[in-house]
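Dig into what follows:

_____
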Amino acid sequence: MSVAAAAGAARAPSRMDELVAAIKARRGLANLDDAFVRERAERVLRSDGRIRKKLDASRDFAQFSRSREHEALLKAVRKELRAVYGVFQQREREGLLEEYERTRDGALLDEIMRAHTSTRERLAHYPEICAQLASRIPAPKTLVDLGCGLNPLAYLHFKDAGWSPYVVASDISSADMAFLERCFAAAGIPGETHALDLTKDREALMALRGDVALLLKLLDSLEETRRHVSYDVLSAIAAPWIVVSFPTRSLGGGRRISTKGRSWFERLLRRLAFSWETFEVENEFFYVCRKEGASDGKAARARKGA
C-alpha cells in the first residue's frame, strides 16, 4: 500500500465511528460526546451477541445498516441515552442566547430555560424552591450543580433568596457546557463548567468542592445507566449539604409517580448516615440532606430518617 493510500485508510471512519454518527443523527442527541455514545453502544453489543455477530459479519457498515440488528441496536442505545440526557433537550436555545447576547433582555434567560424540560417545569416554582433551600441551608460560597442542564441560569432566583454563590456546573456533554459558559459570560453569573460522566468519573467528581451540591431529577436516570451508582455519587460529593430531587409526575406532567418509588433512596441516606428534610412543589419532591458533622448555621434541625 502506498503512503497516500495508507493515510487515506487511516482517515477512513471505522464501523464504530459510523455507528456513533448514526446514533447521534437523531434529534436531541447530536451534542453528546462521541466517547460517551461509543461506550453505550459497546455495552449493548457486549450484552447482545446476535447484534455483535451481525456487525462483525457484515461486509461494511452500509450493509449492516440495512439489517434488523442495526435497527435494534440504534433503538437500544438511543433509549439508554435518552434516559440519561436526550429526553431533556430542546434545540431553540442557541438562537435565544444569540438574541440575549445582543439585547441583554432578562426575559430571554427564562426563555432559554424553557428550552430544557426540567427547568421549564420548574420555572414558575423557583422562588419557592430557593426560599425553601435558603431557610434550611446557610448561604453557600460555592454551589455545585451536578447534571445541571440549564438550572444554573436560575442564579437570579437564588440571589433573590439571599444566595450569591460561585457556581460549579457539571453535565455529561462538553458542547452543552460550552453553551452554559456562554450563558454565564452573557448574564454575569460567576462560575465554571465541567463535562463529567457521574457514572464513572469519581475522582473528577470528588475534585468539585463546594458548600452545597444539587442533584435535581438526576438519580433515577443515573440508576438506569448503572444500578446502585447513587451510593458512589453521594459518597464522593465534597459538600456538607446535598439537595436531591425526584419528579412526582412522569415527564411533561403525566401520571403521578408513587412515593414508594423513593424508599430505596431513604434506605441509602440511612446507610450513608445522612440526615434530611423534605419539601415538595408541583411535579418535584426535594430532599435537603446533611452529612454528619455539617454546621447547622441558620438551618432548621434536620430530622434523622426513622
